[in-house]
Write a sequence for this structure.
DNA sequence: ACGTCCCGCCATGTG
DNA sequence: CACATGGCGGGACGT
């Protein structure tokens, strides 16, 4: 026993955390509870404690128990519990160094980062506050553990640290580490209930994957980056960034909006509310946030359907509670830290993201990248689900709730590590890099990025939305936004899968800051795009597209189901890979000025050509100009669109792309439409009335400094609209503006008018659009399989992947 | 007094 | 039905 325990301990704590942490912490911390920092320290302590056989033993019983318990899991590896030893081994094998470094990084980073953060427009984060502290007491050391652990000592954050300490951040790929919840609970001396809380959050980040009933596989941080990237993508698709803005700024009240119709979403199953999902959503908020700081309040509101109504007040409280649980775990992971944001009203508790934001993943060369890489890589990726946001918003009307959709969340079960992931981001080496921040500030410009594309059918599938919702638009406030479509995928599926987004973004780094080029690709229909772009020829046809889409969807659906049933991993892998192409397109460097656009465009298109994925439209934002000046390049191909377009457009046919001044856009009304496709989905989108545009998928804006731009993407909707070509949606969101209070962005409307573009050097803000979003989840449901609905239960997920719970 | 959030009841799911 | 999960919120702890 002891040995065992010890082993664990050893493994865990010692090396990594300790060393590093202490140092840092000391400096800063003040008090907060669980910071990762603390963790570091605490860990040791804890570990000690826990380590101490006594503790464990106590709880659970004799050592034997432990033995019993444990055995199971590790077996896989080789030995049973002794495994601890194994673990150690693994760990060490894993390259402790790396881990350590990482840890260090992490640890340190935060601090640095914090400082960086510039002020934010609206909210300011107090740096000062930030501290991490370790307070926990780390202090006490060892012994006391037994003593009476204070409440803090029993905190989820600490517990999580202990948990994390048991396993290597980067376990060897081949040898999976099995985790038995019972064992862990025993070893950590806590009730299983608590372990569930931790594991659910970890699962949401693909740090662990569920295998079966009481067993999980430990993935460590290997997949983390990919997962985060995926979450970011999804978050953007969902329009969370918009929401964030709204929420942030606006007070309570209005944020909403949203939703619309889909309605569907509602399904709130247990699962929907699960910690896991909530965790993903919460993380998404950080990833799409310009400031990377999310207040609890905002998060709660966004995550709740209704924000704060009175009625919902209790909900709000509950949500906040859960967010604390999640935050504690994330803090332990070193992904966030607690800060306070000053707002008009006063200060609010908030959390700042310390993890990577930009995944540059891809960074690779520029562009390209592999999106594919991204997605495919891990199977495990988490399913995400997000959805809800919109719901939340929508919530306002009760009506929305009505439909539930199912979600299909299935969880994937385990995913095997199967595919080799790509490195997307360089994971391999260093784990996470938190560097991004730096980047943002300094580097800036290049964001490269990737894009992904995917065309893959899968996406479509997901997309489906409930029909019902579709109608929505009317229901909503006009403005609304709803919609985006988002991909339905969201939820249920694993991120990856869905993820592949349809669109590509192109970011042109080269441009100097100010200028940005956004490429929109139509997600859905890849086919079209390519064509259009390449040659002036028109493109095609909507009809065709649609069909395609539809068909694809159908396929997708099937796939999903299947996959669900089987393995998600597979799914992911497959589909995703395709995506990659888009990314290529961009070059990093493109010429700066706007004009360049054309050339680039082509470039892009070509690259992308590979599949369909090419961007169909480009949004070019000149440096100086703000959104105002945005020009849209539409591919000539677009069908109808051209017509509408203003002058420039006209030529469209002839030209591959049409540049549309932003100014012109206004003329075109934005429309939200929901489309339905075949039965299944309806999407709503925002678009200009112009036909032409496509739906863009994402665009990125690069701007300068600070980080990242926000991107928004849109979703994709595959569907062509029935009648119109509305393909385009816009969104706008751009990044950057610092807005302060400013604004009101209109929701839907695009930013065009707004200033967004410019990212100011300051911070990027997101743009305005808020809009839409929809619930992802709902959509996801696409599948609709009805059957599942009730399943929601936890268990099910694993097992059932396939089902959709729809409600 | 208030922000956090532990604790564990008990609903939901599963086998 | 027993067991596994995990939503949920009362109310305690910390400050």
């Amino acid at each position: 026993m002891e040995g065992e325990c010890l082993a664990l301990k050893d493994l865990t704590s010692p090396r990594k955390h300790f060393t590093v942490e202490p140092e840092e912490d000391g400096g800063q911390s003040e008090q907060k509870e669980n910071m990762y920092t603390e963790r570091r320290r605490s860990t040791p302590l804890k570990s000690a404690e826990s380590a101490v056989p006594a503790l464990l033993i106590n709880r659970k019983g004799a050592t034997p128990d432990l033995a019993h318990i444990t055995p199971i899991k590790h077996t896989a590896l080789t030995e049973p519990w002794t495994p601890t030893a194994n673990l150690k081994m693994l760990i060490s094998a894993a390259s402790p160094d790396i881990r350590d470094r990482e840890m260090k990084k992490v640890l340190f980073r935060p601090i640095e980062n914090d400082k960086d953060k510039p002020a934010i427009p609206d909210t300011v984060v107090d740096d000062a506050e930030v501290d991490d502290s370790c307070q926990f007491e780390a202090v006490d050391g060892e012994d006391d553990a037994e003593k009476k652990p204070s409440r803090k000592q029993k905190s989820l954050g600490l517990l999580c640290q202990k948990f994390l300490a048991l396993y290597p951040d980067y376990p060897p790929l081949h040898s999976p580490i099995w985790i038995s919840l019972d064992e862990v609970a025993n070893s950590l001396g806590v009730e299983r209930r608590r372990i569930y809380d931790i594991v659910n959050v970890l699962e949401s980040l693909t740090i662990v994957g569920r295998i079966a009933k009481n067993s999980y596989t430990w993935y460590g941080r290997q997949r983390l980056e990919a997962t985060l990237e995926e979450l970011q993508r999804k978050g953007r698709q969902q329009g969370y960034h918009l929401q964030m803005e709204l929420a942030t700024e606006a007070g309570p009240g209005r944020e909403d909006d949203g939703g619309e119709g889909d309605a569907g979403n509602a399904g709130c199953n247990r699962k929907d509310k699960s910690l896991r999902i909530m965790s993903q959503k919460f993380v998404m908020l950080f990833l799409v946030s310009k400031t990377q700081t999310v207040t609890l309040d905002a998060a709660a509101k966004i995550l709740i359907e209704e924000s704060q109504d009175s009625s919902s007040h209790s909900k709000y409280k509950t949500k906040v509670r859960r967010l604390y649980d999640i935050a504690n775990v994330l803090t332990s992971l070193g992904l966030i830290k607690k800060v306070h944001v000053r707002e008009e009203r006063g200060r609010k508790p908030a959390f700042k993201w310390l993890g990577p934001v930009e995944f540059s993943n891809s960074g690779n060369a520029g562009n390209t990248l592999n999106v594919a890489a991204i997605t495919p890589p891990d199977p495990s990726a988490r399913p995400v689900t997000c959805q809800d946001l919109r719901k939340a918003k929508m919530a306002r009307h009760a009506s929305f709730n009505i439909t539930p959709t199912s979600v299909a969340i299935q969880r994937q079960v385990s995913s095997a590590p199967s595919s080799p992931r790509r490195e997307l981001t360089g994971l391999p080496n260093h784990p996470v890099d938190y560097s991004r921040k730096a980047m943002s500030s300094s580097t800036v410009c290049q964001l490269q990025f990737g894009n992904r594309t995917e065309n893959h059918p899968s996406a479509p599938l997901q997309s489906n939305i409930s029909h019902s919702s579709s109608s929505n638009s009317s229901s909503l406030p006009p403005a609304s936004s709803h919609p985006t479509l988002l991909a339905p995928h969201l939820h249920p599926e694993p991120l990856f899968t869905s993820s592949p987004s349809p669109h590509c973004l192109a970011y042109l780094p080269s441009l100097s800051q100010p200028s940005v080029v956004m490429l929109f690709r139509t997600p859905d229909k890849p086919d079209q795009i390519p064509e259009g772009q390449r040659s002036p020829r028109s493109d095609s046809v909507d009809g065709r597209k649609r069909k395609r889409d539809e068909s694809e969807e159908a396929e997708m659906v099937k796939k999903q189901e299947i996959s669900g049933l089987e393995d998600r991993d597979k799914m992911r892998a497959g589909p995703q890979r395709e995506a990659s192409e888009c990314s290529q397109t961009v070059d990093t460097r493109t010429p700066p000025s706007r004009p360049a656009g054309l050339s680039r465009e082509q470039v892009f298109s070509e690259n992308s050509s590979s599949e369909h994925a090419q961007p169909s439209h480009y949004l070019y934002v000149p440096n100086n100009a703000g959104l105002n000046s945005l020009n849209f390049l539409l591919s000539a191909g677009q069908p109808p669109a051209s017509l509408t377009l203003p002058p420039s457009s006209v030529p469209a046919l002839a030209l591959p792309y049409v540049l549309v001044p932003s100014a012109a856009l206004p003329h075109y009304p934005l429309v939200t439409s929901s489309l339905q496709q075949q039965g299944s989905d309806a999407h709503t989108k925002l678009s200009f009335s112009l036909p032409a545009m496509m739906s863009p998928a994402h665009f990125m804006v690069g701007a300068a400094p600070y980080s990242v731009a926000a991107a928004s993407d849109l979703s994709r909707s595959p569907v062509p609209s029935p009648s119109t070509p509305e393909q385009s949606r816009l969104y706008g969101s751009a990044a950057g503006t610092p807005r302060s209070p400013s604004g009101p962005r209109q929701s839907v409307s695009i930013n065009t008018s707004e200033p967004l573009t410019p990212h100011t050097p300051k911070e990027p803000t997101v743009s305005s659009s808020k809009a839409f979003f929809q619930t992802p989840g709902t959509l996801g449901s696409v599948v609709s399989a009805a059957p599942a609905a009730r399943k929601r239960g936890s268990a099910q997920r694993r097992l059932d992947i396939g089902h959709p719970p729809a409600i």
Observations:
- Residues 1-146, 250-268, 306-310, 362-807 of chain A have pLDDT under 50 and may be disordered.
- Residues 31, 150-152, 181, 192-193, 196-197, 200, 213-214, 270, 273-275, 314, 317-318, 321-322, 793-796 of chain A lie near DNA strand C (CB under 10 Å from a C1').
- Residues 2-117+145-220 of chain A form one domain.
